[in-house]
């Protein structure tokens, strides 16, 4: 693509972004020091002001002030905001999905799917508002009742990443709001326009149902803005999604002020394919899990561990599908793989492939840039590299579409290979053997927070708690009882007798 055509396309995309924002009800941002780029061309969509240290502090103070009243609103009434948000997300699903494509580079169906995740978690949170259950336990003292109750925690800080610019915010925010918390959101500086759109819709939802719009605050900028959120003692819980490197910085700083952390960090996800597997089904699942979103999901499949008896026919199927993947502008029909987010991602991918080849790996296919685009955009063909062993580069997470293929001889070897990485987010096994499936899900099987059978590593559902172990951080978001991370627990004892017996039968005085 010539520079002239690329510049014209960028202008068209910038105009479209402004139109989409107006359709949602947000004013297109004015000039500032924060630049919103599109990975489609690498060009500028808009510039907008970044927050200062003082404005971040003010946002946290506003959220804290709003919390004072919000925590006393009954949870089912708090859910009215989330219900209205779900209605607005449904009404503006197309516009918001297109903004995700423009800023994150996702193909249309994936962008729409991400917005649907937001709607789904809103529905989950609405039901949850009537299920914030405590418990009653038998007291050892007569005339006493012993129970546990759950209460709103305070201000929740949310730091989200570029690859799911809206869904992860919704996972945290919908649940935090029904739990009685207020939210301060620091999105990725790569995706400020989608954040502006979501903030506008939530503020409108609050106003529409008579709630205080100050329950949600948006702060924009780089790492220095996020650091302010990390270090502020007024932030009761910090939920951060990003790299392991980021988590190593964030966790000790929050711990030093005795705050709470919910971390969703890297995933170096593996899938085991056994001799009894349905290879056609496995191949389809592997291709989507490994190449979807250009390999830029935390749940992307990065390691394929295949029994030696089936590695040949399986690899033939997967490589054939890879060669047919259409890589290009995510706005075009039929494109399955969009761009990498920036030049740094492309450089990391090339360096990882070079290291793998130096370790004795064989490049089966892919890895080359796709010509015809702007020099500032980065499109690559997803790569498959067959490895003789699980070397250092395989044990690291490269946030790009590289699938490393390893082989095994016996099931114990497969599980050992699978677990021998620092990360522990998502995992899968493809098998027709019930015993193998159950062993993979058992305590001595996969050590990940997510373990699937005959389905890929990506595409988690809202109802299940999402998160992982080891260097992935241990946090849980979205479904199940993840709401407990957003609340504080109190143990209550009620004496309804006329006596004052002490616990453990102690006699005093």
From TrEMBL:
One of its GO terms (molecular function) is aldehyde dehydrogenase (NAD+) activity. Signal peptide: none annotated. Residues 32-489 form the Aldehyde dehydrogenase domain. Keywords: NAD, Oxidoreductase. InterPro entries: Ald_DH/histidinol_DH (IPR016161), Ald_DH_C (IPR016163), Ald_DH_N (IPR016162), Aldehyde_DH_dom (IPR015590), ALDH7A1-like (IPR044638). The keyword Repeat does not apply. The keyword NAD applies. Transmembrane segments: none annotated. Belongs to the aldehyde dehydrogenase family. PANTHER family: ALPHA-AMINOADIPIC SEMIALDEHYDE DEHYDROGENASE (PTHR43521). Homotetramer. This is Aldehyde dehydrogenase (NAD+). It comes from Nocardia amikacinitolerans.
């Amino acid at each position: 693509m010539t520079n002239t055509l690329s510049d014209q396309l960028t202008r068209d995309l910038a105009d479209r972004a402004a139109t989409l924002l107006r359709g949602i009800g947000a004013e297109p941002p004015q000039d500032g020091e924060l630049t919103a780029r599109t990975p489609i061309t690498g060009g500028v969509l808009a510039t907008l002001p970044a927050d200062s240290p003082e404005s971040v502090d003010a946002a946290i103070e506003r959220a804290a002030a709003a919390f004072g009243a919000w925590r006393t609103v009954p949870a089912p009434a708090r859910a009215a905001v989330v219900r209205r948000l779900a209605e607005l997300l449904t009404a503006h699903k197309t516009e918001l999905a297109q903004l995700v494509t423009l800023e994150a580079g996702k193909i249309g169906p994936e962008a729409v799917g991400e917005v649907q995740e937001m709607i789904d978690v809103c529905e989950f949170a609405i039901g949850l508002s009537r299920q914030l259950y405590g418990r009653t336990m038998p007291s050892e003292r007569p005339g006493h009742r012993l129970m546990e109750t759950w209460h709103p925690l305070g201000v929740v800080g949310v730091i989200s990443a570029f690859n799911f610019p809206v869904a992860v915010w919704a996972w945290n925010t919908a649940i935090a709001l029904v739990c009685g918390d207020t939210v301060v959101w620091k999105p990725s500086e790569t995706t400020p326009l989608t954040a502006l759109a979501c903030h506008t819709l939530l503020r409108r939802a609050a106003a529409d149902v008579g709630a205080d719009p100050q329950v949600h605050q948006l702060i924009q900028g780089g790492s220095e803005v996020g650091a302010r959120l990390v270090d502020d003692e007024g932030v009761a819980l910090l939920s951060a999604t990003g790299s392991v490197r980021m988590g190593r910085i964030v966790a000790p700083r929050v711990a030093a002020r005795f705050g709470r952390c919910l971390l969703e960090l890297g995933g170096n996800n593996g899938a085991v394919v056994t001799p009894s597997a349905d290879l056609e089904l496995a191949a389809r699942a592997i291709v989507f899990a490994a190449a979807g979103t250009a390999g830029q999901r935390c749940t992307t499949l990065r390691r394929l561990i295949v029994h030696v008896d089936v590695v040949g026919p399986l690899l033939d199927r997967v490589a054939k599908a890879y060669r047919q993947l259409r890589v290009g502008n995510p706005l075009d029909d039929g494109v399955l793989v969009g761009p990498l987010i920036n030049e740094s991602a492309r450089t990391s991918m090339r360096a990882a492939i070079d290291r793998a080849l130096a370790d004795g790996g064989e490049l089966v296919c892919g890895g080359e840039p796709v010509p015809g685009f702007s020099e500032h955009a980065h499109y690559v063909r997803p790569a498959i590299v067959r490895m003789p062993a699980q070397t250092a580069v395989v044990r690291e997470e490269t946030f790009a579409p590289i699938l490393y293929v390893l082989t095994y001889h016996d099931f114990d070897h497969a599980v050992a290979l699978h677990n021998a990485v620092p990360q522990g987010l998502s995992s899968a096994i493809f098998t027709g053997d019930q015993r193998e499936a159950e062993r993979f899900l058992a305590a001595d099987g996969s050590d990940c927070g997510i373990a699937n059978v005959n389905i890929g590593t990506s595409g988690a559902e809202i109802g299940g708690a999402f998160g992982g172990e080891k260097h992935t951080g241990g946090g849980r978001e979205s479904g199940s009882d993840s709401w407990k991370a957003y609340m504080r627990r109190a143990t209550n004892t009620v004496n309804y007798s006329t006596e004052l017996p002490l616990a453990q039968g102690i006699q005093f005085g």
